[in-house]
Structures are given as C-alpha cells and as structure tokens.
Amino acid sequence: MKVDIKEVYMNYHTLENSTRALDNINFSVESGEFVSIVGPSGCGKSTVLNIIAGLLKPSSGEVYIDGELVTNVSPKVGYMFQKDHLFEWLTVLQNVNLGLKIQNKLNDENSLKVIQLLKNYNLWDFRNHYPKELSGGMRQRAALIRTLALSPQVLLLDEPFSALDYQTRLNVSDEIYKILKTEKKTVLMVTHDLSEAISMSDRIIVLSNRPAKVKKEFKMDFCIESISPLKCREAPEFRTYFNMLWKELNLQQ
Ligand code: ADP
Ligand code: MG
C-alpha cells in the first residue's frame, strides 16, 4: 500500500503564538518499501507521522494512502512508539488481543492469526506471562504483534527502539525488520540513529531544521541482496552512507 504526502504544511497555534512545523513536505513511500526519516530534534518528524496516521489535520496539503485521502484514523495504518504501551495487568495474550477486542473484531479468524503471529515470532510460550516478566526486546515484539493483529498495511514507527539499550537495540531492530519484511508491510520509521536508518531502510529522507522541508533523499543500495540489518552494518558501503548522512545533517546546523 502506497503512501503519498503532497504539499503538506503544518502550523501549531497556541494562545500566544503560531509555530510553523512543516513547510511544504512532499514524498511517497512505495508499497512494501521501508523508508526512514531523520532530522534534527524538534524539526517536525513526529508531526509528519501524526498527520499520516490521521491524528492531526495538516494546515494545508493532503496525505493519500493507497490513493485514498486521509481524513481520519484509518485501520490501514498501524502506529508504534518508543514506549510499548503494554498494560502491566494484562497477560501477553490479553495485550495483543486488546486492539481487536476494542474494535469488536476478536473473531475466530483473528484469534488464529494472533496465535500464529505469537508462534512465528517466539512469544507463544510467554502468552500467559505479564509484560514485566519479558525483556525489553520481547515487549517491543509483543507491541508489534498487537499492532499487526489489526492487519494494517502501513506501519508508522516513531523512534521504536530508543528506550532499549544498545545491544538489545541491535537485535530487536533486526528481529522487527525481519517480521515487517515477512509480513510485507510498507514502513515509515522516524529515528535519530543514522546507523539504524541505514541498516534497515530502502531509502532515507533527511528533513531540515524546523520548519521541516525535505532536504535530501538517499537510496540505500547494498551490493548483497536481502541483507539483514545486522549484516548490513558490516557491509563496505555502510561507512560511505554514514558519512554522507552525517555531512548532510551537520550542514544545516
Ligand atoms: P520531532 O519529532 O522532529 O522532534 P515534533 O514533530 O514533535 O518534532 O515537533 C515539531 C515542532 O512542533 C517542535 O518545535 C514542537 O515544539 C512543535 N509542536 C509539536 N507539537 C505541538 C503542539 N501540540 N502544539 C504546539 N507546538 C507543537
Ligand atoms: Mg518526535
């Protein structure tokens, strides 16, 4: 499912003043593509995701998902944040079923789907455990399965691994990447970690300081086919891409 962002402007209004966060944002994410957004802190990255998710209305411009104008929150879109937002008093199974239950979609077919996701992604044995009994990586996987249970075609990830320690982060980003590719999702991820962006993405969009404009796009082209994020970090092109992005981000300071 394709995402198109067309001439999007965003101004935040408060009682005292008005802040322009986005200044004519244009880009697309192709079906099945993994795109990352990087840019300075406070430039408007989360604003872009919130607009695509239909949680915020842009001041002007449009977002299309699969050619359809976004006017509200859509079941086609899943959203994952830095915090996993799992409920501590619910088991893993209850947590991953929660979205379906709220939407009155916990039928036999969807229940089976959740069981399959838990089995495929190694959480089945922990289905009756509580979130506090899981590692940070397992919690993030459970949060992803809860999102996938609703069958979104487009996934928005806002700094999904920021709360994890470095070692866990490397492994979890690898796992999550494989899940998203296996499930053939279209992904747009915000991250401030350039290595993470390079190792996971097909393409990286660099935003400018606020008000954010699309400053540059980099296509990641590694010589080895279907390389995993962990392996990608060892590829010879990795350093080159890192330096290119580093330069681009530091040019604007
Ligand atoms: P990023 O995710 O890149 O760090 P955000 O999209 O969260 O940036 O925010 C972009 C800018 O818009 C920031 O300067 C922030 O202070 C401002 N902003 C974000 N949300 C609001 C809001 N609800 N009201 C007013 N200003 C906001
Ligand atoms: Mg943000």
From TrEMBL:
<feature type="domain" description="ABC transporter">
    <location>
        <begin position="3"/>
        <end position="234"/>
    </location>
</feature>
<dbReference type="InterPro" id="IPR027417">
    <property type="entry name" value="P-loop_NTPase"/>
</dbReference>
<keyword id="KW-0067">ATP-binding</keyword>
<keyword id="KW-0547">Nucleotide-binding</keyword>
<dbReference type="InterPro" id="IPR003439">
    <property type="entry name" value="ABC_transporter-like_ATP-bd"/>
</dbReference>
<protein>
    <submittedName>
        <fullName>ABC transporter ATP-binding protein</fullName>
    </submittedName>
</protein>
<dbReference type="InterPro" id="IPR003593">
    <property type="entry name" value="AAA+_ATPase"/>
</dbReference>
<keyword id="KW-0813">Transport</keyword>
<dbReference type="InterPro" id="IPR017871">
    <property type="entry name" value="ABC_transporter-like_CS"/>
</dbReference>
<dbReference type="GO" id="GO:0005524">
    <property type="term" value="F:ATP binding"/>
</dbReference>
<dbReference type="Pfam" id="PF00005">
    <property type="entry name" value="ABC_tran"/>
</dbReference>
<dbReference type="InterPro" id="IPR050166">
    <property type="entry name" value="ABC_transporter_ATP-bind"/>
</dbReference>
